[in-house]
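Title: Prediction job returns without error message
Component: structure pipeline
Severity: low
Priority: P3
Assignee: unassigned

Description:
Job completed but the reporter wants confirmation the result is attached to the right record. Sequence as submitted:
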Amino acid sequence: MKKILWSVSLAMVTSVTWFSAAAQTPVGDIKAGEKKVAMCIGCHGIAGYQASFPEIHKVPMISGQGAKYIMAALTAYQKGERRHPTMRGIAEGLSEQDIADVAIYYEAHGRSEAKTELPKAAEGSAKMTALLAKGGCVACHGDDFNKPLDPSYPKIAGQHGDYLFVALKSYKAEKAALVGRSNGVMAGIAGQFSNAELKELASYVASLPSELKTVPQAKFR
């Protein structure tokens, strides 16, 4: 009987804690987010724009990306778990509400009201199939890399290949001051591959049909 009461009590405490945490998560507002993206459009609002420091690569497409992933990424920059100096400097100036607003804005940014199915991704070579299986990539990033199994994971299909390559390498250099990313799961996965293999993986994923895009802001059109 004591074990049953203990189990019930534990379940109740866990539930209260979960609901309390959920209640504290800000709800994003698209209209509010539209007024907070001035610091984003100078890089993410220009098609083909390249970052030049600490490594040259195209900045990632974030229009159409999942809001919960954008929130997770910005929070990771804010906490120093991702060490890109520019992004960390921007994220440190954002409140939780700012992050939620910016994230929901970009999730909806450029989305068409007419729902269209993406074409089926072409199968990769036998070597690519083996590399993807080794990394277990679909297990998190989902079917055709457009449907993450958890909304805090990114859509990566069609993302710029040079950015994906830099991102993957950064998990292998998690303690590097300027490019490192701290993520135990991704560090373990990326560490299985040579940089040449990571580049091949990035190029293949970049070639896939995508929901991601760069939507030029009005002042850049």
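Comment from assignee: result matches the submitted record. DSSP finds eleven helices and two strands in the chain.
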